[in-house]
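Sharing a chain and its predicted structure for anyone who wants a worked example. Both blocks are below, sequence first, tokens second.
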Amino acid sequence: MPFRFVTAGESHGPGLTAIVEGLPAGLELSPKDIDRDLARRQLGHGRGGRMKIEKDRAEVVAGIRHGRTLGSPVAVRVENRDYRNWEERMNPWPVDAEIDEVHLPRPGHADLAGVLKYGHTDVRNVLERASARETAARVAAGALAKALLRALGVSVFSHVTRIGAVTAPERDDLRPDDFEGVDQSPVRCLDAAASDAMVAEIDTTRKANESLGGVFEVRAFGLVPGIGSHISWEERLDGRLAGAILSIQAMKGVGIGDGFDLAGRVGSQAHDEIFWSEEQGFFRETNRAGGIEGGMTTGDPVVVRAAMKPLPTLTKPLRSVDLATKQPAAALRERTDSCTVPAAGVVGEAMVALVLAAAYREKLGGDHIDDTRAALRAYEERIGWSRR
């Protein structure tokens, strides 16, 4: 069975659901594994009032029994506590109920294109699904993917490297242990001085009724070489990762490894030279490629950077047009965050984990997790690979 997932639900509906197919049987899982990442998605300086309402928890409704996967699809539900405040407005029944429609699309959001595409007159029919609240379901699915990857020796982390005009110093030496305290930073930044400056930048911007974007980085450790493929375009791992990251709301750019910086270098400063020793086998002293060459993992950490635009819902709305009257009007104003880059990093972890889990399942198969581990050991032995 291929590894895949789907989410369902609206921002202010009763809840969000994630269904994950392709997890092998026998994988140990606990709701705490999911709840931990759901709580991390709610972190970050700059969040708005909704995070004071929602206390996301995972309700596993299918696919797990006595703490282990069954091999069947796993379904997880996350309640929207704010639904109680919106119940009358969001209730789909009866169909002839009078509803106060929203006719003020926001620049930078899915509102206008969505109502035109689907023939709606009410922007809320679009914005409720387009909302980044949907990422709670993605994070739940990603936690399941992370559990599979952990069982195969792979770990996935993220940190914020830029918010607005504030950029943290670049580091090429990061290891899993370096991420232990990242969630203690109010902006999930590994550099203390940059973290303080980012907080100040958010505060200044919020007072000016503005929002801020930034950059986060996801790193995956413990990968064997050869995950992904050069054979066809849809199997190239870097393409799959880029698509997954850009599918996250408000993402506008993605780079693998040194990414866009490589475009300004000469070839000798862009690629990672190959070495070999009895102790290490094949290895590289640099990782400019971000752990991927020719659409496949190299065995070095996979590094993915994402650029997030400022959120389009502003406390001082931009100019728009009323859909009903076609007259100039201020865009919809709703409760919003001023910066969600720290939370977006956690969503990025989930999406990277989901792509890597799917690629590992394609490579290794296995109905039971022990079968998958055995296939991994056999592959490592064949290529002479030892964990670093």
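Comments welcome. The mean pLDDT is 93.
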